[in-house]
Amino acid sequence: MQAAMRGMFPALKPNYSSATSQFFFFFSTRHFSSKLFIRGLPFSMTDQMLADAFSEFGKVVKAEVIKDKDKKKSKGFGYVTFDSEDEAQKALRSTHGKPMHGRVVFVDKQE
């Protein structure tokens, strides 16, 4: 069986120059995500309140506060997706470590 498998898959020699260029291409073309992760949200925060709080930085495509399945209350974190990466970057720079509705929020890009 192994002999048959060897015949099906010819030996591949690693091409390190190709692998290196692919590695650098991957990291040089990665973009900032337009989706942000926000923690430290007030437990009274709703999806609409979150969207309103971030709408000053651009068009909010989706805002979601993560809720406990049983109690239906906020877990204190959520996600905001913007129309563009630039808007997300502006929101991240402007809101990270700043108070929002009485609590300090921490914002990070979601990959």
From TrEMBL:
The lineage of its organism: Eukaryota, Viridiplantae, Streptophyta, Embryophyta, Tracheophyta. Residues 34-111 form the RRM domain. SMART domains: RRM. It holds the Pfam family RRM_1. This is RRM domain-containing protein. Keywords: RNA-binding. InterPro entries: Nucleotide-bd_a/b_plait_sf, RBD_domain_sf, RRM_dom, SLIRP/GR-RBP-like. One of its GO terms (molecular function) is RNA binding.
